[in-house]
Amino acid sequence: MKKIFTSAILLFGCIAITFAAQKKESKGIVITNWLQADAVTLHLPAFHTTKNFDEQTYQWKNLLQENQLDITSMRPAEKEVTKWNNQNISWQKISTNSKGFVNLTVADKKLVHLVSYFSTNQWAKIKINLTAFPMAELYIDGEKKISHYQFETKKPKEINEEITLEQGQHIVLIKVLTAAKNNNFQLSLNPVGNSAADLIQTSLSPKQMLTIHKVLDGKKARNTQLSSNGKLAMISYSQTLPPSDKVESWKEIQEVESGKILHTFRGSQLSNIIWLPKGNKISYTKSYGDKTSLFIFDFESGSEKKIASDITDFGYYTWAPTGKYLLYSVRKDNSKDWKIRKIQGMEDRLPGFRTRSFLYKLDVNSGVKQRLTYGALSTNLQDISSDGVHILFAQSRPDYNEYPYDKQNLYQMNVESFKVDTIWKDKLFGGYAQYSPDGTQLLVQGGADCFGKIGEDIGKQPLANNFDGQLYIFDLNTKNAKPITLHFDPSIDQAIWNKTDGNIYIKATDKDYVRLFRYNPTSKQFDALNTQSDVVRNYNLATNGSRISYTACSISTPYRAFVYDINTKQSQLISDPQKENLKEVTFGKTEDWNFTKANGKTIIGRIYYPPNFDANKKYPLIVNYYAGTLPVERSYGGRYPLNLYAAMGYVVYLLQPSGATGFGQEFSAAHQNNWGITTADEIINGTKKFIATHPFVKADKVGCIGASYGGFMTMLLQTRTDIFAAAISHAGISSISSYWGEGYWGYSYSVNASGKSFPWNNRKLYVDQSALFNADKIQTPMLLLHGSVDTNVPLGESIQLYQALKLLGKDVDFVQVKDQNHHILNYTKRILWNNTIFAYFAKYLKDQPQWWNDLYPDKNL
Predict the structure, then answer these.
(1) Is residue 364 part of a domain?
(2) Model pTM greater than 0.85?
(3) Looking at the structure, do residues 23 and 36 belong to the same domain, yes or no?
């Protein structure tokens, strides 16, 4: 009997211990450390006892609701000082008592802010438990989650709220309105469901990993323009306005030396703001209904002058270097209001093909407007000579009888006599031309075949990739062209012939960098400029040729604005708008990682490591590669912010397979008539080598992702290998033949991807190398993403592979993004699109399906 009684006691004890453990666990993780700001005094407004139209008086709880700091951007640290009206309030560390309660020893009717941070290592559902005596509001990441508007004196109020949190660091803010006594509260976080034991980590440090909001939000520098003397810079900015999908864009003028902002056009209705070629003057347009007027503003005199009015269908305008006149275009859309029509040529189905643009000259002093061009084809201005006497303009038209199915004419016009000379006619590979400083030569930017074989350096490759930009100097008297970049591997993006020092300043894609170069036509030497960044987006040369302004970024540094002094050869940072937004963000390490193929060719790549990387741990791997034929630059953000993937706990391997521009013509020409065979083998080979040489990679948890041509590669890869545990294709091409025929630029892109090959003469390429016709070989789980109104790669490319894989019983998902084209640009939809990618990889590479299941629960349809 005693034995039975003892056993019963032991059993009861076990039950009691288990119950106690469950009770303790049910409280979750109590936040024990806080940053408390100095208490501030609140005052009730005048007439607070008077009832308003809703028969309500003003209560103390209203003060709690209304008086607050900008909590959406607040991330304080210990001993940091924050402004409150005219006083400074500092943040000090406090801890809870033995029962887990914060005890505020503050006078009655004071407002106290308390902040703490916590991180989740995966997407999770969390139950927030707030137990509070005083009035309080609780915010997570700036969003109000719990409100308590009663003063409790005898017992605290307990409020629970279940929320979902994305992976990463979160800030919790509690605003307390104190009472005469019992200003205590407790906050605990309780994971819901089967979550890892180390799901939540608390901290008082505002240091965080990169998030999608850090990538998309904040003020961004877009481009720059220099005044004629190079002393003033006009910087273009944009900023998202969450939670809306709106974007604000504006310009600011600042002194280069001092950084002083002289003028801002924020909120202005002005458009097309540019510097005049002489003096500190700007010009701009104003629209009145369907009419446009042009103005000049002189900063020295502070005066505005209207120089033209009532222009219908206004397009763009360009100043002559003399400043005596400008050229503007008028665009006429000839495809409006049709109900049925005959398509006249392949481009006729494209929006804007029937739009025609013609040039007009506006004399500034007299206000006289003269029409310069007319006809059936649009005329596109290319340049104006230094003396303002001559202009260059081009016309182009499709010609389906001869590869590459487009022909260009280039003309020179004397704007005084209206005499027109033909520079070239029916050029098969057109180019963009600008005058030399003396006007006797042209600098022509085009592809390798712009002037026939003289521009080719493609080795044994049969066709050049004319997306690989080249430069030529064309003599206007002899009509002879000389290639100047024949053995210069970087691909030319833009070039300006400086009329002051006679040098040519070039922006070029150099492998995975985008750099500025100087070319000296006399010595025939190229020199890289000191741009202090990895990727230059755009650049602008002052009229006097003294300075270059540009915007540029690096892997872990967003776009900033710089000015390069041509004489001192030094760059000066003039705007860093994302500095505050990213000051607490921790980036992981990046480094180059290349491999050599059996034929001796080196395929370059780079690695993104998670922050706080530990080589003794195992990490899932994501593999990325180029779209189109452009290499994936060393830029910040972008369509696939690889730093963000690393911040979510992945190692990322980015490689630049054959066919990319910026590595020399022979390398880029490998894109022609290959459609992924060489590229796929290099990706597979590189991935295997990467796994074998990096023991911290989980070999069975490797994913791949790409878009457009990269989406095609994702699809094709799965027909040739099973090394991937998950594959994501955005706007991928599943059938080369249907893309060739249906995509807006399908057949024209194919000029440089499958030159002279067609569905009827190269079945091996168009059919056998398409994933759709090899769908039965695919074993990898695959996510197909697509904008619902994609005109570049039509939605059907994902639809038909989805249908094939579903009928074959494969693991496939298909997500459309409503009303988005080839790129996902809408702010809210881009976040949802990115979260879809993150959730899919979490499901297959981390064995964490919760986020995906929450986003896309199965429906009984």
Answers:
(1) yes
(2) yes
(3) no
